Amino acid sequence: MANDQATVNKTYQDWYNTIVSYERQFKRWEARNDRIIKRYKDDSRYDRNPNARFNILWSNVQTIQPAIFARLPRPDVSRRFRDNDPIGRVASMMLERALEFEIEHYGDYKSAMNNAVLDRLLGGRGVSWVRYEPHIVGEEAGEPDDGWEVTEDTDEAETAEGMENENQERIEYECAPVDYVHWKDFGHTVARTWEEVTAVWRRVYMTRPALVERFGEDLGYQIPLDTKPDNNSNTYKQTDGVYEAVIYEIWDKETGKVLWLSKSLGKILDERDDPLGLENFWPCPKPLYSTLTTDSLEPIPDFVIYQDQARELDTLADRIEGLINALKVRGVYDASASELQRLFSEGENNTLIPVKNWMAFAEKQGMKGAIDLVDIAPIAQALTYAYQAMEQVKGQIYEIMGIADIQRGQTDPNETLGAQIIKSNNAAGRLKTMQNHVVQFATTLLSIKAQIICNHFSDETILKICGADQLSEQDKMLVPQALALLKQESAKNFRIEVTSDSMIYQDEQQEKADRMAFLQAMGAFFQQAVPMAQAVPETTPMLMEMLKFSVTAFKAGKQLEGIIDETADKL
Q: For the whole prediction, is pTM greater than 0.85?
C-alpha cells in the first residue's frame, strides 16, 4: 500500500530525475544519430572531408523506404467474430469509412508515417502520436437560438430565455490527427524491453500565445521561452526566430494520469486523469525499432552494421577519382619540333600539321624520336581493379542488408525467371520483417485513431465522415444500433487490420487476379449449390450460410457482404 501511495504521489523532482536518467542513457545514441544524418545528407564533405565519397547510406534508404511504405494503407475493419451479425457488419463498414476519410482527408497520417519510417531507417527509432482535436466555435452574441431579432418590444422573459445560450459553444468539426515526433523529442522510462516501460513523453514547443491559451494567463506568462533557434541544431524547431517553450507531455500508465511540466520553470503545469480512455492508455504505438537486444531499448541503427564496408567504399571512391584524374595524356617532346605541341591542341580528324625541315625530323625517327608519352596502361588497369573491388564491397553491404539485385531493379538477362524469384524471395525474408513492423505500427495508429473516433466523436460527426446517407436502405435502418455498438468498447468488438500489400507498390494485375479468384470461387460454388437448392429446398439456409462463410475469407468480396446478407434473409 505504501508503494502504491508513493507511485501515485510523484512530484516534479521525481519526473525530472526520470527524464534526466533517460537523457543520460540515450546521449550516446543521439550523438551517433547526428553523425549518421550528416552522413545521409553528405554534410561532412564540405566541412572537414573534401574527398570523394560513395553515399551508400542514401542509396539503401531510398531503396528500402518505398519497399516497406510507399502509399497510404487500406484499413480493414471487421467484426471480431465473423458470424451473421448485420449490426456488426454495418458498424464495421461505418468505422472503416471513417478511418478512410481521416486518412485521405488529412495529410498528417501519411506524413507522420513517412517521417517515422525514415527515422527508423536512419537512427533506428520512429515515433508517431495521435491526438483528439475538437474544433469549437461559439455562437454569435445577441442572437437567440431561434434566430429572432431582439428588440425593445421583446418581453424580458423571452429575451432572457433566448439569450441564455448566446455564449454556448459548439463543435464545428472533430478530427484525430497523427503527429510525427522527432527522435530527439521522444522519451520513456528506462527499461530493458518495451513491455517494462511505464511512462512515455514527448517535448512540445509552444509560443507565448499558445502557453497562455493552454495554461491560462497567470501561468502562461511565467513559463520561460527556453528554446534557442539554432540553424546548426535540429533539436529545436525554428519559427522565424521566435523563441518557444519546451513543455514535456507525460503519459504515466501506473497512475493513469497525464501531466505537463516545464524544466525551466521547475514545476508541473497541469495534471489530468486519462483524457482519451484508450485500451492501452498511451496515444502512441510501440516505436518503429531497428535492431534491439533484450537488455536495452537503445536501438542499433542499420548503418552501424555496415559502416566498415561504407568506409571502404569511400576509400575506393576517393582513389577512383584520383585515378581518373591521372588518366590523361602527358609526356615530353623535342623543343626543336614545336609543331608537336599543336598536334594535341589543334589536331582534328583528317587534319595534317606541317613540319619545317622534314628531312631532319625524319632522320630523328619522326614522332617516335621526338615525343615520349606517359604509359597510362597501369593506371587504367588499377582503375579497373578499383571498380571491381567497389562492386565486391557493395555486394557485401547488400548481403548484410538483404537487398537483392532484383529489388534494386538490376537483373541478369541470362538468368531464368525461377532464379530471379529465388533471389527475390531470399531478400524478401528480412525485408518482409521490416514490412511487418511497419504494418503493425500503422495498424496500431489506426486502432488508436478508431478508439478516439468511437469514444469522443459525436454521432453527427461519425455519420458525416462515414457517408451514412450513401448506405443501402436496409443498412440505414441499422445505423442507430451500429452507432450504439461503436460506442461500446470498440477495441474489443472490432478487429482493425492493415494489409501489408496495400502499403507498398504492387502490380495492378495482382488486384485483378484477387478479384478473378473470388469470382471463380463463387462461380464454382453456385454451380454446385443451385442444383442442390432446387432439388432439396430445405438446404437453402445452410447453403447461404456456407456462401457467407466463403465470402468473408476474400477481401475482394467484402463489399458484397451486405447484399449477400440481404439475399440470405430473403431466401
A: no
